[in-house]
Amino acid sequence: MQEDYVKIRKEKLDNLIKSGINPYPYKFDRTNTATEALNLKMGAKKVRLAGRLMLIRDMGRLCFAHIQDGSGKIQIAFNEKEIGKDKYKFFIKSFDLGDFIGVEGEMFKTHKGETTLLVKKFEMLTKALRPLPDKWHGVSDEEVKLRKRYLDIIFNPEVKEMIYKRSIFWNSIREFLLKKGFVEVETPVLETTTGGADARPFQTHHNALDMDVYLRISMGELWQKRLMVGGFEKTFEIGRQFRNEGMSPEHLQDYTQMEFYWAYADYEDGMKLVEELYKYVAKKTFGTLKFKIRGFKIDLGKKWERYDYCRIIKKFTGVDVLNTNIREVETKLRTLKIDYDKKGFNINRAIDNLWKYCRKKIAGPGFITGVPVEISPLAKRDPKNPALAQRFQPIFAGSELGNGYSELNDPVDQKERFEKQKKLREGGDDEAQMNDKDFVEALEYGMPPTCGFGMSERVFAFLMDKPARECQIFPLMKPEK
Predict the structure, then answer these.
(1) CATH no. for 154-304+364-471
(2) What is the DSSP annotation of 88-115?
(3) For the segment 29-58, what is each residue's pLDDT rounded down to a tens digit?
(4) CATH superfamily name and code, 2-132
(5) Whose CA is closest to 259, among 198, 226, 218, 229?
């Protein structure tokens, strides 16, 4: 059916070309956007607007239409007496819904009081060959919405508003950190050794150097720490990172992340700064600190709590993660009917699965602290309890929304932890961290005490109270068959 409409539109396109009209001109000089025109004085002349035709209502010798641009919609009117019979007929025969049109005319109000542009001149700006979806239903299929996001944007103002908010979100993070004296940097996306997270990387081949490389799984953590070694004291990066992992409402494989590194600061300083950052960004992006997320009522303006990782797990499962073994944890996972990936399964993964079960019960806002050092291979040990790391994770609505710690700068300790991670990888855990010898060498030159922190677009998705995939502009989709 749609192909029949495409055929008709192509015929109209051919007729335009044959009559000497370019259906795809290079530009059109507007005087106003649709929203600006709605606020002009009645009688304003030579107003030039452009946009997509969203409605055409032909009444014989008078036709009303709606055009939509990036700012909104406005009504335009074609009067046969005003433009002449031939031009009126040309508009009705040649233009379809979805076409882009440029118009010039005079502002007036209809007898119903609607602000309208009376068209004096018009021209085709783009001939659309495919008809838009039904105006009343727009795009209803969820997969089509994501696959053909451009159609969803046309019909759904909420999607366009989400994209604007997404831009404000990341720019407010940048604005906050720049005001605090941080320097924005760029670090490699292609790496010979991935680092900075427990994640499975994407692998590709570098033809010029004839070697396999990985797409980064963190926002340059080990590179930004090298900058600390080199004498920088406050750095951050916002960019794209990649993790070849499972999909869920919270997890993406190709997404935007921010990480900062702050010399001479520890995780206590980090928590203060991050709480201030989240409040600043929420207020800038959404105009409020109060949110409803996944059934939780979250007030970022209230006191942020501290949640002890080991105590939380003990409270909800009865397992003491500092004095347990894989057999006990695996039995508990089965008892609680927690599904888990058995490939490369080890005590660290077992404890992490227990934690993911427990965190769903925490409303927040607050910080997770007291995380075992064994599952924090880049964090400093807590001097009060060396079995724990000086690590913190913002949490609200049952999920961690960031990760930070007092960065490990002891090269001997770091080397030992990398070697333990290497053994885990050799045992089948392909999310364990790689042994980065070059980074250990950099630490041997000396890195000052440093606090590091990272957050991803998951934070934005949570504040929107939507799945992460829906909050990406163009999420990755399988090709249509």
Answers:
(1) 3.30.930.10
(2) HHHHHHH--TT-EEEEEEEEEE-TT--E
(3) 999 999 999 999 999 999 999 999 999 999
(4) Nucleic acid-binding proteins (2.40.50.140)
(5) 218
